[in-house]
Amino acid sequence: MMLLNYSQPLELTKLIKWFDNLLRASLPEFWTLLIEFVVVALALLAVYVVVALLLIYAERKITAFFQARIGPNRAGKWGLLQSPADMIKILLKEIIKISRSDRFLFFAAPFFMIVASFATFAAIPFGQSLHAIDFNIGVLYVIAISSLGIIGVFLAGWSSNNKYSMIGAMRSGAQFVSYELSAGFALMTIVVLSGTMQFSEMIEGQRYCWNIFNGHISSLIAFVIYLISGHAETNRGPFDLPEAESELTAGYHTEYSGIMFGYYYLAEYLNMFVIASIATTVFLGGYLPFEIQGWDGFNQIMNYIPSYVWFFGKTFVLIFLSLWVRWSFPRLRIDQLLNLEWKYLLPINLLNIVLMVLLVLTGLTLKDLFGIL
Amino acid sequence: MNSLSKYFLGIYTGVKSLLVGMSVTWKELWTKKVTQQYPENRKTLVVSDRFRCELTMPHDENNEHACTACGICQMNCPNGTIDVQSKMIETEDGKKKKILDVYTWDQGMCTFCNLCVITCPSSAIKFENNFENAVFNRRKLIHRLNNEGSKLREKKKEVKPAESKAE
């Protein structure tokens, strides 16, 4: 393969191979796999929590900078210990049992949310050989599993026995179902372009020309639509209707406390990360460095930067974009929100798929035009 | 204008105004942060001169103040925070005269309305911007404003109008 020509000193591929060989040399197949599964699961859980804490910190800091404030700066250097401290606080809080609520569903709901977000998180390619599961229908899997989270929202709204929670959950559901459509279609546009649903193949296909450049106008439209609908799906920014404070107190998670609330909070932040990282993988070449065909010296320098740094760097840029949007625009009303989806994003999206099909069929993508691999 | 062109014009103007909004917040991201980190920046902290925190009675180098103990400030105070105690003395030329004995101000009751300063005919009191007034005991909030052994400044004809203007 092309990639073996460049030296990549900081990749984790060798370490993982070494660990695998070590286990296989001394243990039978079954135990090797079992140990590896457990290690991968623990590593993913650890990354999940660390990413969530870093995101909460980054969000608070960037938000502060947008509002000409400094943000958390008391706990630890530059306030770095602020979100671990918050985490410990939320772990120590009492979990309040609401009387006349549906006890079983009430406590089951947060798990739907967190499991859905974690299962999506696990399917993301973080770097070379840092990819837990590589389904051949990866895109479909991600869309399907991330939609499970809405069940948690509905259950929370219903079982709280509280009208504000219920209205918040209904709003959230309407919003999620509508925008999931746009997000799915935007991803399908790129599936048309790259001809595969498998994340690893999709990324390899973007080595010298990221999908966002490859499909030029059509890709760009799909990218913008994906970002908007992803933003709306995570109930953030100008689309945070389910949590409209003056109308619905805190929306569907009003009645939750302690770590149960923490699950929703965590899942919300991780969904933001998942949306950004899927956008990275599908549109911006995933963990691949920025390379230009033929410029070997330049490509070599780019390859010295390890792939996970590229991945997290690109993802962070998208997260920053989402925060930027969040602190720029005023909130939408519920009818404006649904108008935007059904009257604008969806028709544009459908036309965009047709446009992309035409581009691919007539050979007008950048790869075809300039003969890029 | 037909509805189709209205639709596309709507998209165009919408996207344009959103981009304008984002450019505004982008500039805002790089502006100087306004947060005052109070206990650390105590030396460089700027508090407006007009900020009313502590009622004071300025004394000059001869330990003389301008208060004639007329009691107008006490009458004007809506909360009754000021207590002017006067005493009668006999001057050298045998006249009886009322002078200030003890001027107390209860900071805990004060609303900082500035009526006492406005109505003082001899501009004897004013509000300072020293805002660090927290104490552990309510009784410590009751301040005596005139110094021990201070006395009324004698009027000098050429100085007085300038002073009253400055206040």
Task: Please describe what this structure looks like.
The complex is a heterodimer of chains A (373) and B (167). By secondary structure, chain A is mostly helical. In chain A, 68% of the residues lie in helices and 0% in strands. Chain A has helices spanning 13-26, 29-66, 82-92, 103-122, 138-146, 149-159, 163-194, 199-204, 211-214, 216-233, 245-248, 258-283, 296-304, 307-326, 334-361, 366-370. In chain A, helix 4 (103-122) packs antiparallel against helix 5. The relative contact order of chain A is 0.13. Chain B is an alpha+beta fold and 167 residues long. Chain B has four helices and seven strands. Chain B has helices at 3-29, 72-76, 115-119, 160-166; strands at 54-56, 64-65, 82-90, 96-106, 126-128, 142-144, 151-152. In chain B, strands 3-4-6 form a three-stranded antiparallel beta sheet, with no helix packed on it. The termini of chain B are far apart. The model of chain B has no long low-confidence stretch (mean pLDDT 85). The interface between A and B is medium-sized, with 14 and 15 residues.
Q: Quick one: overall form of chain B?
A: elongated
Mean pLDDT of chain A: 84
Number of helices of chain B: 4
The end-to-end distance of chain A, rounded to whole angstroms, is 12 Å
Helix content of chain A: 55-70%
Strand proportion of chain B, as a percent range, falls in: 15-25%
Q: Are there runs of chain B of 5+ residues with pLDDT below 50, and where? A: none
